[in-house]
Design a protein that fits this description.
There is one protein chain. This protein has 441 residues and is an alpha+beta fold. It contains ten helices and 20 strands. Strands 12, 13, 14, 15, 16 and 17 form a six-stranded antiparallel β-sheet that branches. Strand 1, helix 1 (24-32) and strand 2 form a beta-alpha-beta unit. Helix 3 runs parallel beside helix 4 and helix 5 (174-188) runs antiparallel to helix 6. The protein is globular, with a radius of gyration of 22 Å.
């Protein structure tokens, strides 16, 4: 087995700690994005079996990037009766496989790090990357519980500074939400609300501007409370772009540092995250710098060492922190890592994501990219790289020297989308452009 030049091997472990509650869509979306990040003949990836989309993307990436058969291992994560296999058994199977391959001092990259896995890695002489779910806070860190009788305001005090947040509470029971609603109406004169499950991502489950009756109905629906807390916040008067889109900026963190570039998010229907872009942002430079300052404040406050991200909404030119995506890689980490490895000296690019027709396979997308002579492979100077494809999403990265070339690739891609007969209302765009040059690793 070949080793990388720095002697380090990474094992990507695509297993959700809460898989019994995770939807198939989330498991597939998160898992398949990592395939292109392996080092050929060096790293290994562990996938849960039973997901055809994962097998398909592996076969595609194996061909394009030259991966070997041993670099993937499909583990059984369900018992024969359909129940969840004990997590410790899965951890043991994964680590035993590393032993069988003669791998030592491996960096294990789980999708959701956990304390039991970290301890098992230490015993085997490996290192688990990331912050354990048991050691981190999530979205509910932003707000107190209404039962705590804490005064709420739009300022969150941290060790090294103050950040803006919306008024709100974290509610673990329907009774707490009804109490929070009454307090916010009577004591803080809040008229418009937002309900936001703390355990979801991409805007799923968010309810905008509900009436009192709708909030009461929400509280009376047990299925909505399977994984509390749920946040109730004031609905912020978000700044708008000339086209009517909302202004939202995100920061991403890797190994205890804020990533070089902040991203501007694209949001569909006021709620659903559908993409992001970096420089040039359609946001004033002063706003971006304030967001970066707040990101540094949060980084110093949390002192985490893995992958995570935060989202800001812009109100009257000021950023308000509205989301913490902790303890796992965020969407923008994947093109960030990919381009650092395969095109570090490019200008760079553009990422586009759309909800794919379920009958279109990765091979279909690959064939169209090849026919247009734009399929990116390692060593190329220009092209469109396919990072992920399933019935749920397609993630591609446009790689070129200049913005003009990037726009040309974008136009080519939109032509391919039309050839694949994907309905217009299923198209979701995601943009990532970069003006700077990365140093080679």
């Amino acid at each position: 087995m070949a080793m990388s030049r720095n002697g380090k091997v990474t094992a990507w472990f695509m297993f959700a700690a809460d898989e019994q509650r995770s939807e198939r869509l989330e498991i597939v979306r998160r898992a398949q994005r990592c395939a292109t990040l392996l080092q050929p003949s060096v790293d290994i990836i562990f996938y849960p079996e039973g997901y055809q989309e994962l097998e398909n993307i592996w076969r595609y990436t194996q061909e394009i990037f030259g991966f070997e058969d041993w670099q993937v291992h499909f583990f059984k994560h369900k018992e024969d009766d359909g129940s969840d296999r004990p997590r410790m058994e899965i951890y043991t199977e994964v680590l035993d496989r590393l032993d069988e391959l003669g791998m030592s001092e491996v960096t294990v990259m789980p999708m959701f790090p956990s304390l039991p896995l970290r301890n098992m890695c230490l015993v085997r002489g490996h290192h688990m990357y990331g912050d354990c779910q048991e050691d981190i806070v999530h979205k509910d860190w932003l707000h107190p519980r209404p039962s705590e009788n804490t005064v709420i305001n739009r300022l969150k005090t941290c060790r090294t500074g103050i950040i803006n947040i919306p008024l709100g509470y974290s509610c673990f029971t329907p009774e707490e939400m009804l109490l929070a609603y009454d307090i916010m109406v009577k004591e803080y004169n809040v008229d418009d609300f937002c309900l936001k499950p703390a355990g979801t991502s991409g805007g799923k489950g968010i309810v905008l501007d509900p009436s009192k009756e709708q909030i009461e109905e929400f509280c009376a629906t047990p299925s909505l409370w399977y994984s509390p807390p749920i946040l109730i916040e004031e609905l912020l008067p978000i700044d708008r772009k000339p086209d009517g889109g909302i202004v939202s900026v995100s920061a991403h963190f890797t190994s205890g540092r804020v990533n070089e570039r902040l991203t501007e998010q694209y949001v569909k229907d006021e709620i659903t995250f559908c993409g992001a872009k970096t420089a040039p942002l359609d946001v004033e430079g002063s706003i971006v710098e304030t967001c970066r300052e707040h990101a540094e404040i949060l980084n110093n406050e949390m002192q985490w060492h893995g992958l995570w991200g935060i989202d800001f909404l812009i109100v009257n030119g000021q950023p308000f922190l509205v989301d913490i995506n902790a303890g796992r890689p965020n969407m923008c980490h994947f093109p960030y890592f990919f381009t650092r490895r395969y095109a570090p000296d490019k200008n760079w690019w553009y990422v586009n994501e759309f909800m794919a027709n379920r009958h279109i396979a990765a091979r279909d997308v690959q064939r169209h990219l090849e026919n247009e002579k734009v399929l990116f492979k390692p060593g190329m100077e220009r092209g469109i790289a396919l990072l992920a494809h399933s019935r749920y999403e397609t993630l591609v990265v446009f790689i070129a020297d200049t913005h003009q070339e990037i726009n040309e690739l974008s136009n080519t891609w939109q032509g391919i989308v039309r050839q694949l007969h994907i309905p217009v209302d299923e198209v979701i765009e995601k943009t990532v452009i970069d003006d700077e040059v990365y140093p080679r690793e």
